[in-house]
Amino acid sequence: MSLFVDREAELAALERFYSSPGAQFVVIWGRRRIGKTELVKQFVKGKPNYIYMAKVLPTGAQIDHFLRGFCESISEPVPRISDWKGAFEFVLNRIGAKQRTKRKVVLVIDEFPYAIQGDSATLSYFQELWDNFLSN
Q1: C-beta separation of 39 from 28 below 8 A
Q2: Is 1 part of a structural domain of the chain?
Q3: What whole-number distance in Å separates Cα of residue 45 and Cα of residue 73?
Q4: N-term to C-term CA, the chain
Q5: How many domains does the chain have?
Q6: What torsion, rounded to 10 degrees, do the Cα atoms 117, 114, 104, 96 define?
Q7: Is residue 26 part of a domain?
Q8: Which domain range does residue 129 map to?
Q9: pTM of this prediction?
Q10: Is 21 inside any structural domain?
């Protein structure tokens, strides 16, 4: 059994973001092994969510792993997408469909640096989609 203690302030902050209207972008960072992943797991309990744990993989395998897990979580077939821009667009479109039904979805990419290390443009794709699609 794992203990989860003394994180009420952090959970409350995440709840405030979640309760805010529209999409929110939250970065959680800190030293390794201090409970960031467990904090997120506690926060998403009872909320529609997809947590992707990035690994050190070649870009194509990383994208496939990301999409496969996401599609399993929403019971959809896995599309053939080979770049991060397409993968982010696919996932954000599916999440956007949920939001149109007034149901927020929490998307977590844990160990994000691993996800983007094979393609230096990945972060700019994500920023472009945030700026043009989600932040409105």
Answers
A1: yes
A2: no
A3: 15
A4: 41
A5: 1
A6: 30
A7: yes
A8: 8-134
A9: 0.86
A10: yes
